[in-house]
């Protein structure tokens, strides 16, 4: 199908939403002429072939709605729709109805909207995903004569979901809320795809209710609870609170195929690239800024005994490796710190071994991925204990460490903070910002024995050029902790972007392998 064919379908869809019929007029004519919130308001329909998707915005000064169309929306449809003018026209008609839903129900004051999103550090694309669920439920519920959207006719709906946001997107496409609303059953989980639990999505999560009560429940149930609550909320302040609780439970990732598709209010999150996808090396944000500790999400309590115990165990296993690496054995003599058993048994005087320091230490800079996909790794799989052990090695003057928290357009040097602070903070970003932060600390990289990126490889833009760094003699080493069955998958992601990767299910094993490798190279 050519661009001109798609343009013709858009024009035909625009005509259909303004059809005048004795039984049922087009949706736009009906909303603008009947007793609805849009009656008497000005809605300007415009076309921009450069736009990524259909979008709506409201000019509160002129009190006008603007709905923009584009041919690029056709990229999301399935093969059957791509090859059919009739299906494409029907799809465009439903997209127009979707944008009219935004005009009806989405917060019109962009200042309030942006303020609430920034207040909780909510990525715009995540808000957009939830808001699409809400407006589609509302417009079908309030105007049932126009029927459901039936997205499954035009868009492929995946049978599997690897993240909570992918499962939520599937609920949206299946119009689960309106289907549940029209049935006797109140069970939304039956509309979910096959949720694949992994290092980023555990079977059990902490669900936070609207009264801030926390409870451990099944992930599938938690997804539907947040989905239902958002669809039933009509207040931007309540919606922002729900999104904040979702991020605390699941992180702030959104489906790759959803990012950059729609804009609301003409506002698009500056922290997001226009079309961020795994492997998109052209999505450089170009900025990075220092932030304070208080700007990072905090779980609200310090280090626990279990966390301290695991941190000390990792530290204890690493300490002899590091000490041995920068120590030289003296000749066996009559004094020393270690007994040489073979000579002692034969009663020789020279039965002691001692060591002296070489004066050099392992130099390491560690960039920690604080995007939402790392939440499970850092909070539950030993990630923070692994980082805490590196911090203890640095505090004991055994290694020379610089540790940088990297996410969105931010960086935070946590090297000199206390161990308790490392345990308290939680991943809260929408992307990693690795390339910008590597460039920021570029002058220090050449002197490091190890440039470590603690990440799961789910990079959503701002990806460093590993080849350019390797040419300068700088190896970018990735590491991550995950469950055994996901090691091959995460290794395959990391190997796309980094010189070498170390992926393990045990933080102790991972730490030992990393240091042994680094000390050999040093």
Topology:
Layout: H1 3-16, H2 27-33, E1 42-47, E2 55-59, E3 64-69, H3 79-82, H4 85-105, H5 110-119, H6 124-142, E4 160-161, H7 164-173, H8 176-181, E5 194-195, E6 204-208, E7 214-218, H9 219-231, H10 236-250, E8 263-264, E9 289-290, H11 305-325, E10 327-329, E11 338-339, H12 341-345, E12 352-353, E13 355-357, E14 362-369, H13 375-380, H14 383-395, E15 399-407, E16 410-413, H15 419-424, H16 434-440, H17 442-445, E17 450-454, H18 466-471, E18 476-481, H19 487-497, E19 500-504, H20 507-521
Parallel strand pairs: 1-3, 2-8, 4-5, 9-16, 14-15, 14-17, 17-18, 18-19
Antiparallel strand pairs: 2-3, 6-7, 10-13, 11-12, 15-16
Helix pairs in contact: 1-4, 4-6, 6-7, 7-9, 9-10, 11-14, 11-20
* Alpha-beta classification: alpha/beta
The total tally of domains equals 4
Strand arrangement, largest sheet?
9-16-15-14-17-18-19
The portion of residues assigned to helices is 40-55%
CATH topology of the largest domain: Rossmann fold
- Give the biggest beta sheet: 7 strands, mixed
Terminal Cα span: 58 Å
Query: Low-confidence runs (pLDDT<50, min 5 residues)?
Result: 268-286
Quick one: CATH class of the largest domain?
Answer: Alpha Beta
* Molecular shape: elongated
